[in-house]
Amino acid sequence: MLNIVIFGAPGSGKGTQSERIVAKYGINHISTGDVLRAEIKAGTELGKTAKGYIDQGQLLPDELIIDILASTLDGFKESKGVIFDGFPRTIAQAEALKKMLAERGQEVSIMLDLDVPEEELMTRLIKRGQESGRADDNEETIKKRLVVYHSQTSPLIDWYKNDGKYQHINGLGTMEGIFAEIAEAIDKI
Ligand code: AMP
């Protein structure tokens, strides 16, 4: 089982690189952000709750997102592995993921940290907002999301280093070049 955590600030390229990983390694993909956007589109109660947090650039409560993750994971019965994209985002979520995988006799194989400088993140996200119309890709919300990333999510870098799973990836360059570094790291597992 190949369980990959793809990590990085908003705009670091997690979604783009996840697609390539899925295509090459044939594993399942869980993007908690995509799950929430689908719920918003479908107009569900969960979607309404999620929208309040997403529009403010804030994280959903851990218990809620952990439940969503667990039920998505349960749907992957014959899986070769999973790429976790946008989860975990807090230490509590990382601990929950570790426990959930352990209960299934599994563990995280590697955590890939897509490292991109702050000015570049801002430029990419503003461009994405203009092209995709994603509601939280506006300058004010992007700034809040980056603050949340630094305060609540970036401590996971040390957490995964302590867990022996951390792999730095240079997130600047061509998509192909970045993917080559990722594939090299995965193939070494
Ligand atoms: P993303 O598409 O991963 O950038 O996620 C968009 C938004 O969804 C985030 O800014 C959060 O509001 C929410 N979200 C996604 N994943 C999580 C998570 N693991 N924990 C809490 N909130 C999340």
CATH superfamily: P-loop containing nucleotide triphosphate hydrolases
Fold-level CATH name:
Rossmann fold
Distance between the termini: 11 Å
Shape-level CATH architecture: 3-Layer(aba) Sandwich
**Unique ligands:** adenosine monophosphate
Mean pLDDT: 97
Provide the structure class: alpha/beta
Helix-residue proportion: 55-70%
Number of strands: 5
The first-level CATH class name: Alpha Beta
How do the SSEs run, as a string of H and E? EHEHHHEHEHHHEH
Outline the structure in words.
- By secondary structure, this protein is an alpha/beta fold.
- It has a single domain (about 1-185), classed as P-loop containing nucleotide triphosphate hydrolases (Rossmann fold, 3-Layer(aba) Sandwich), CATH 3.40.50.
- About 60% of the residues lie in helices and about 15% in strands.
- It is built from 9 helices and 5 strands, in the order βαβαααβαβαααβα.
- The protein has a 5-stranded parallel beta sheet with strand order 2-3-1-4-5, sandwiched between helices.
- The longest helix is centred in the middle third of the chain and has 15 residues, at about 120-130.
- It is globular and about 40 Å long.
- The structure holds adenosine monophosphate.
- Adenosine monophosphate binds near residues 32, 59, 65 and 86.
